Amino acid sequence: MSYSSFIYCDVCCTHPAKRLNGADDQLKFNTLEIFLPMWCFWFSLLLIILAVLLVLDLLIVMLSYSMCWYEYANARPELMNNRLSGKNIRLVCSLILQETFFNFLTLSVLPFGIFNPRCHPRKRGETPVLLLHGLFNNRASWFWFKWQLRKQGFGNLATVNLSSWHSEEVLTEIVAKKVDELRHRLGVDKVHLVCHSMGGIIARNYMQQRGGAAKVDRCVFLGSPHFGSKLAPFALSPLGRVLIPGSDFLLRLAAAPLPEGVLVSNIFTIKDNMVVPNANACLPWGRGIELDGLGHTALLYRRAAVQAVIDALSGKDQR
User: Fold this and answer.
1) Quick one: DSSP state of residue 10?
2) Do 285 and 235 have their domain in common?
């Protein structure tokens, strides 16, 4: 091949390919220019939403503890003497920060509770544990608790979503159906119930007024407002009316027969920022377990609460 032919091939064949590669690179660069700002926009928007939720969470926790202080300072004026001591200020800061963190963590995982869990109780003959969440939560709020229970050998764990926008009787029916489903599928006569906050009220309605006591072996309450809460009027859900102290529903529940044959453990914290006054989380029957230094949502995460539930389910707290 002559030198002129080589030049011809180089011009006609090689250069167009180079121009084509250059066009591809320019297309990729233009695509990146389009999508990078979009990605940055959505990421920035997500950060703004999370920041707003965190600030609102902090304000709600501070407001709830402020109302708790108002309640207790009026009931016990002597508390005013040491309200600004270093120990009390550190305690208040600790309670607010940990409750804000646990609230935000729970809120962050709620989207995962919309979907049905992939793991279901499968061990036939082993008593399952049904976890009932509180108001404005769903089954995802139990993620940490389930992990801790599995580490202790409790494999048959079940959850159910209880909508905050349905009546207490509808929610009780959901629990009743879930209990029967677990009993028939696993070949057992009874289940264990672990109930946080409003979940405990639904469990009591099921056991005391719907005949469910015969199907429950152990029931563990976590921060349940058995006699209501003075913060209930602030709840946006219709269930808030049920939790107002002295409501017709709570009076009927208090007058109902005790759940015969059920081993009941009632775990509560004297620093609960949602059950006001804290005495409304106490029961005159069953085994009472008092905790300190943690708030309402912290009952789902702190080691003391988790261990108290494990002891109750294993029967250690009955000794």
Assistant:
1) I
2) yes
Average pLDDT over residues 187-196: 97
Record the tokens describing residue 58, joined without a space.
């902090």
pLDDT at 12 over 90: no
Tokens (6 digits) for 45: 């928007």
pLDDT for residue 1 is more than 50: no
Cis peptide before 277 (omega within 30 of 0): yes
Let me know whether 191 and 240 are in one domain: yes
Give 252's contacts (C-beta < 8 A, 6+ positions apart). 209
Q: Are residues 138 and 75 in the same domain?
A: no
Helices (H) and strands (E) in the chain, counts: 8, 6
**For residue 187, which phi and psi values (nearest 5 degrees)?**
70, 40
Same domain? For 181 and 291 the reply is yes
Half-sphere exposure in the Cβ direction for 178 (13 Å, CA): 25
Domain that holds residue 294: 112-318
Tokens of 189: 């006569």
CATH code, domain with 139: 3.40.50.1820
> Based on the domain organization, do 196 and 271 belong to the same domain?
yes
Mean pLDDT calculated for residue range 285-309: 96
Question: How far is C-alpha 138 from the geometric centre of its chain's CA atoms?
Answer: 6
Which tokens hold the place of 105? 């963590």
Query: Cα–Cα distances in Å, from 153 out to 35, 127, 142, 314?
Result: 48, 12, 16, 10
Q: What is the pLDDT of residues 197-232, one digit of tens each?
A: 999 999 999 999 999 999 999 999 999 999 999 999
Number of structural domains the chain divides into: 2
Which has the minimum average pLDDT: 79-88, 251-260, 268-277, 288-297?
79-88
Q: What is the pLDDT of residue 80?
A: 82
Written as six digits, the tokens of 79 are: 């508390």
In this prediction the pTM is 0.85
Same domain, 146 and 194: yes
Regarding whether 219 and 77 lie in a shared domain, the answer is no
Task: Identify whether 107 is part of a domain.
Answer: no
